């Protein structure tokens, strides 16, 4: 099923913006009467019929609307952005395909990038969601200060983990995580978390975890963390 995205779908019919109209009418050559599938990224799937394939203002009629509730678990990944934007964007695409719910970028001591282009990254998430047939769009948050984020009491009900390089840290995330929970996992930069950052997280109740025996790049660690938590909830 080919899936399209439209944030606000209300009523029995709606219009697409010029960019999406052109894509549907000219690029894909969809004709009047064709059925197409849209999501609003909030759990809804709309089966729509094209009533006007004008490349500047395509109009669609809603034929059927179904809703898929969220999973009974929540994965929040908090990660320091990499210096190379392409690597973090690649990670976003892959974890969207696998399935996650929220991401926050962290401003750490050893951070490699002090700014993130949220608009561009959201486009990557939308594209990956459409390609993998996801009807829920993950939430993406801007850079947050590490200390403020880790000490935020809003996460006190989560199972909280911090992944870092330590030969004595042998307990894998999959063995520590309990199914049907909300999870928050911290992934550090290439230079890892500082000793002070690790101590702060541990003092706030974060559990140290391993993601395997190998030393991983930031984006690889993020993918493994999300995949592991999905496996726990199969």
From TrEMBL:
- EC numbers on record: 2.1.1.193
Single GO term (MF): methyltransferase activity
Q: Keywords in UniProt for this one?
A: Cytoplasm, Methyltransferase, rRNA processing, S-adenosyl-L-methionine, Transferase
Keyword rRNA processing part of the UniProt annotation: yes
Q: Which InterPro entries match?
A: Alpha/beta_knot_MTases, PUA-like_sf, RsmE, RsmE_MTase_dom, RsmE_PUA-like, tRNA_m1G_MTases_N
Main location per UniProt? cytoplasm
A single Pfam family it belongs to is Methyltrans_RNA
Which GO annotations describe the biological process of this protein? methylation
Annotated Ribosomal RNA small subunit methyltransferase E methyltransferase domain residues: 71-229
> Which chemical reaction does it catalyze?
uridine(1498) in 16S rRNA + S-adenosyl-L-methionine = N(3)-methyluridine(1498) in 16S rRNA + S-adenosyl-L-homocysteine + H(+)
Q: According to the UniProt record, what class of enzyme is this?
A: transferase
Instruction: Look up keyword S-adenosyl-L-methionine and say if it applies.
Output: yes
Output the superkingdom of the source species: Bacteria
For this chain, the family text in UniProt reads: Belongs to the RNA methyltransferase RsmE family.
Instruction: Give a short account of what the protein does.
Output: Specifically methylates the N3 position of the uracil ring of uridine 1498 (m3U1498) in 16S rRNA. Acts on the fully assembled 30S ribosomal subunit.
- This one is known as Ribosomal RNA small subunit methyltransferase E
Source organism: Negadavirga shengliensis
Lineage start: Bacteria, Pseudomonadati, Bacteroidota, Cytophagia, Cytophagales
């Amino acid at each position: 099923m080919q899936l399209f995205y439209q944030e606000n779908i209300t009523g029995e019919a709606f219009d697409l913006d010029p960019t999406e109209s052109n894509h549907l009418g000219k690029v894909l050559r969809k004709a009047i009467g064709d059925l197409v599938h849209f999501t609003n990224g909030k759990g809804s799937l709309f089966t729509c019929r094209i009533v006007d394939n004008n490349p500047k203002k395509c109009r669609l009629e809603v034929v059927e609307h179904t809703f898929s509730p969220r999973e009974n678990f929540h994965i929040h990944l908090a990660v320091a952005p990499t210096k190379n934007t392409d690597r973090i964007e690649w990670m976003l695409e892959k974890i969207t395909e696998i399935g996650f719910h929220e991401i926050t970028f962290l401003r750490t001591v050893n951070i490699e990038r002090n700014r993130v282009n949220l608009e561009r990254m959201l486009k990557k998430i939308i594209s990956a969601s459409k390609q993998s047939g996801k009807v829920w769009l993950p939430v993406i948050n801007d850079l947050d200060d590490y200390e403020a984020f880790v000490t935020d009491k809003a996460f006190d009900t989560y199972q909280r983990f911090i992944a870092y390089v330590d030969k004595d840290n042998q307990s894998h995330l999959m063995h520590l995580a309990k199914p049907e929970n909300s999870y928050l996992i911290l992934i550090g930069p290439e230079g890892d978390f500082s000793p002070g950052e690790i101590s702060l997280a541990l003092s706030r109740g974060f559990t140290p975890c391993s993601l395997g025996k190998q030393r991983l790049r930031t984006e690889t660690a993020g993918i493994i963390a999300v995949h592991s938590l999905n496996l726990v909830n199969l």
